[in-house]
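Hi C.,

You asked whether I'd gotten around to modeling the 217-residue construct. I have! Everything is below, sequence then structure, no commentary in between.
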Amino acid sequence: MRRTQRMLRCQYLLCLLLALALWAEPAVAQVRQTVVGITMTCPYENAIEGGCWSGAYWALMQLDGVKAVDKAGNGYTCTARVYLEDNAFPDPEAWASKFKECVGQAYIFRGVELTADGAVSSTDGGLTLHIPGVDRPIALRRFEHKLQWNSKKHAPRQPEPDELNAYEQLASMVKNPNGEGLKVQVTGPLTKSDTGYTLEVREYFPQTQSTYAAPQR
């Protein structure tokens, strides 16, 4: 009997310690993917995929919160994926400034596109996204500035019709009964100003409990 009581007491203490550890663990920002837009001044075709990429790669590695960068950029969209340190969150303005400080005019930093999980709420000013691990809610806006670039036309690639309508479709879902607090994965250009972050909704996907889990950074 005494042995059984001791075993139960030990199991209880282990469960208690585990619960305290989980409670004390800081929330990790649910950032799924971070993509940057880089315009090359190198004259060679598909330079972002070749030897001209090395300077941009080095500069991206200097950005605050970045732990790794794709070994080559995407020649079709003139973008590259960067991988964040734990609990890091992109600062587009600071990144653009640091990138230019590193490379001057040899490369152009066009911006940041973010894919993140969060809960959407409706306010008087529109929709906001509450991302776990991020202190302030992020304002959601209609998609207007496509990061993906056409190097031959020297212009952004044309948005798809569903991209232009994504914000309105998401707003309609939130207005439905029980739509407040809808968990979604949102992708779009991220900007920052004195009032905080703004994310343009290029695409979104409603999340289930199984998909709303640990981020793949």
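If it helps when you're writing up: The radius of gyration is 21 Å.

Thanks,
B.
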